[in-house]
Design goal:
The chain is 41% helix and 13% strand. By secondary structure, the protein is of the alpha/beta class.
Length: 295
């Protein structure tokens, strides 16, 4: 390559628009309120001048967006978002994605189910995502106390009833280690995207198309139980005390999602931060996530 071609290529690279970023909020949150994900969107736009940031609103208003985080089935949410992203011309050259809490496993479900229908998804950043589900719900975000108690009771006693699975989002990633067979049979979302009933090769192929899958665990997380689920860890089957890592699980040993392959090829990244759920310093985010994976 001649000296002038190198210079022209360098100029084109410098002047190129930054890779767009898609955000998916968690339970009890909304896409765009200033004190919520709206402020994080502004932060990204300041740190990466010219970047297009799409903070996903599930529904026609922030109120619907908030409610849908509890009551719109994840399968329907993923279908909704898949169409939304496919029709956004600003994402045509590919994008990065950041999921917050339950939004992280929903984004992973999106990658696996319709990644082949979308522009290239480059890096998927999971901030506190519950990738092996949860077994416990100590807090319920912004829900009022009575509603929070109702959600808790439904999950503790009836999570796998079909009508609960169909009407309460958190039931679809409730993972009871005391009854793995029931979980795998009745879970309408998590057991499917984790390939626990049968192997969907499209899920594996789409997930492995990512450049990076970055899993962030919050070491002092008081909301997610167990916090190891943020790194694909969970309770060893049959009890709820002893934990096992991703590498000890059937998911990894049998490579049911291709995660072992991703780790061996350097695509799977494990990060941690000392904070509580979704609590991290901005300078930590810039150093550990923004600079390596978003610019």
């Amino acid at each position: 390559m001649s000296k002038w071609l190198v210079i022209l290529f360098s100029i084109k690279y410098i002047l190129a628009d930054p890779t767009p970023i898609v955000l998916w909020h968690g339970m009890g949150d909304t896409c765009c309120v200033d004190f919520s994900l709206g402020s994080f969107k502004i932060f990204l736009e300041k740190e990466i001048p010219g970047v297009y940031v799409l903070s996903l609103q599930i529904g026609n208003s922030t109120i619907e967006d908030f409610e849908n985080g509890y009551f719109m089935h994840p399968n329907k949410q993923i279908q909704y978002v898949c169409k939304l992203l496919a029709n956004d011309p600003k994402l045509a050259d590919g994008f990065n994605a950041i999921g917050f809490s339950q939004g992280a496993q929903f984004l992973r479900g999106l990658v696996q189910r319709c990644g082949h229908k979308l522009p290239a998804i480059k890096s998927l950043i999971s901030l506190g995502g519950q990738h092996q589900g949860v077994y416990g719900l100590p807090h319920c975000g912004a829900l009022q106390h009575a509603s929070c108690d109702y959600v808790r009771k439904m999950l503790n006693y009836a999570a796998y009833y079909s009508w609960v699975q169909e009407s309460l989002v958190q039931a679809t990633y409730w993972h009871d280690p005391l009854d793995e067979d029931l979980y795998k049979k009745q879970s309408q979302f998590l057991a499917d995207i984790n390939n626990e009933r049968e192997i969907n090769k499209t899920y594996i192929e789409n997930l492995n198309r990512l450049n990076k899958l970055v899993l962030v665990k919050f070491e002092s997380d008081s909301i997610v139980q167990p916090r190891e689920t943020e790194w694909f860890g969970f309770y060893a089957p049959g009890q709820a005390k002893v934990l096992q890592s991703l590498e000890q699980s059937d998911l990894y040993v049998q490579d049911r999602l291709g995660l072992k392959k991703m780790e061996e090829s350097g695509k799977l990244v494990f990060l941690s931060t000392p904070g509580d759920h979704l609590q991290f310093p901005q300078d930590w985010f810039v150093e550990k996530i923004l600079q390596p994976y978003l610019v």
